[in-house]
Amino acid sequence: MNQWILAPFPFFESSKIKWIVSIVFGLFIFLFLLTFQPFGISEVYPNKLLYLAGFGLITTLILIISLVVLPLILPQFFENQKWNVVKQILLLLINTLVIAGINYEYSNRFLSAIHIQTPNLLNFIFIIFSVALIPITFLVFIMSSYLKKVTQESAIELNKEMLKRKNNQAGNNQLLTLNTDLKNERLVICKNDFLFAKSEDNYTLIHYFNDQKLTSQLLRISLKSLAQQLEVFPSIVRCHRSYVVNKEYITCIPSAKSELIRKTRKA
Count of CB atoms within 10 A of residue 179's CB? Predict the structure, then answer.
């Protein structure tokens, strides 16, 4: 439980995303109240739309303060690397309580002015929490998906960096380790033995030299994933959406086709 509570959780770094989230939440509150009309809203006339717009505006302003202004004032507290699940939960709860409290006071003053009975505070807060549950769930889902994407991109970059260091240390004896979609399947060959790869739907056909003999092997991996793994080798490029080639074996590029294999193979 403690590990989950303290697990990292992404906080929006883009100011554009923060403004969009704040405006969308306010608009959602406005549309929800317009559709279901709780708290005696059905009795409000003729300034109903103006009254409901106030709820949305208050929600948007509070979220702007929470997501945009406070991170500028307290940058260390909202630092993305230190943000975790418990901080996110507390932020959501505090925002919801503040939105409920200020909206209640706003509703109380507005309805009193037109002599309509104001709703009970606890009932008001309960309904606000119920309404907020839908966008909050959606927000958590979006942020979780964002965290997964960032983690995957970081892992790919780290893997590339490790491969670069390993290949720099290996010098001319560079090895290609091709990891496939299957857990226990991989192909390890020397870089100079790799000839080209051709896409075969969800598979890729690898052509390479094995003990001076041309060999082919079908691997469960897309050509896109293969190309990403081979980006650390400048001599191996994706020249076509269906092919990845080793430039060291290209002798010429005529108008009709490319000649890949040298007449005399480079040792």
Answer: 16
How much is the pLDDT for 259?
A: 52
Grouping H, G, I as helix, E, B as strand and the rest as coil, residue 175 is strand
| Beta-carbon contacts of residue 63 (< 8 Å; ≥ 6 apart) | 21, 22, 25, 26, 95
Q: How far apart are CA 78 and CA 222, in angstroms?
A: 39
Q: Please, what sign has the CA dihedral across residues 63, 93, 75, 11?
A: negative
What pLDDT was estimated at residue 267?
Answer: 45
Cis-peptide into 254, omega within 30 deg: no
Q: What is the mean pLDDT of each run of 10 residues along the chain (267 residues)?
A: 66 82 90 82 80 92 93 87 80 88 86 71 77 74 71 74 60 74 86 90 90 89 90 87 88 59 49
Residue in the structure block whose two tokens are 């991989």? 186
Q: Domains of the chain, with CATH numbers?
A: 2-161 (no CATH), 175-249 (2.40.50.1020)
Cα angle value 41/47/49 (rounded, 5°): 70
pTM, full prediction:
0.52
pLDDT of 45 reads 73
d(CA 248, CA 156): 26
Number of H helices, E strands in the chain: 7, 7
Helix, strand or coil, per DSSP, at residue 201: coil
| Residues 116 and 43 sit within 8 Å (Cβ to Cβ) | yes
